[in-house]
């Protein structure tokens, strides 16, 4: 029940849940390869881990999850530096909240590319190594709206429903290879994801990025014979 010396890839790690998770796992001794489009923020994260003398390392590999070559480079870096991959956390994603007739086709395509295709691309890049070693853990950070809908959320909820379907099918495909798959379904999180930004008065009772990081640590540090198929978490203040 430890992540010490495990190699973990996290997408969308430049801020929010991804960033908090990377720092917590490095503090617990994991070697974390982080990726996101914002190179400056990623490099700052790597610098903070180095200067903070975390037990594990953080290695920044800027990239776009919608690019197959970028995600293959992330996986290659993990294997070159640490020889194996233990966990892949698909965390990259964003939201657009508009009525259907207000959405543009480009908004639909761009969000689906990041939230859904990005999950597929990074997972696909890592799978050959995980299958060969006969172990591993793939985590997909979706949302509780993978299981419900709301007005103005057609695009975002569609992407999260798609992530849930992908996760469920993947779980059935890879279990026989000794690979675990976990879908994470969170409620409201006080992060920059929301329009009013992190730390706003209206979100003070929500889950914090650190709460989600602790959840990730719990999920991936279970004994080898235990898999958490689904993990749903909400702030007490949120009705569900």
Automatic annotation (TrEMBL):
Xref: PANTHER family: DEHYDROGENASE/REDUCTASE SDR FAMILY MEMBER 7B, DEHYDROGENASE_REDUCTASE SDR FAMILY MEMBER 7B
Protein name, per record: SDR family NAD(P)-dependent oxidoreductase
Gene3D superfamilies xrefs: NAD(P)-binding Rossmann-like Domain
Organism: Spirosoma telluris
CDD domains reported for this sequence: SDR_c (cd05233)
A cellular component annotation (GO) from this entry: membrane
Molecular function GO terms recorded: oxidoreductase activity, acting on the CH-OH group of donors, NAD or NADP as acceptor
Protein family: Belongs to the short-chain dehydrogenases/reductases (SDR) family.
Domain of life according to the entry: Bacteria
Keywords: Oxidoreductase
Stored InterPro entries: NAD(P)-bd_dom_sf, SDR_fam
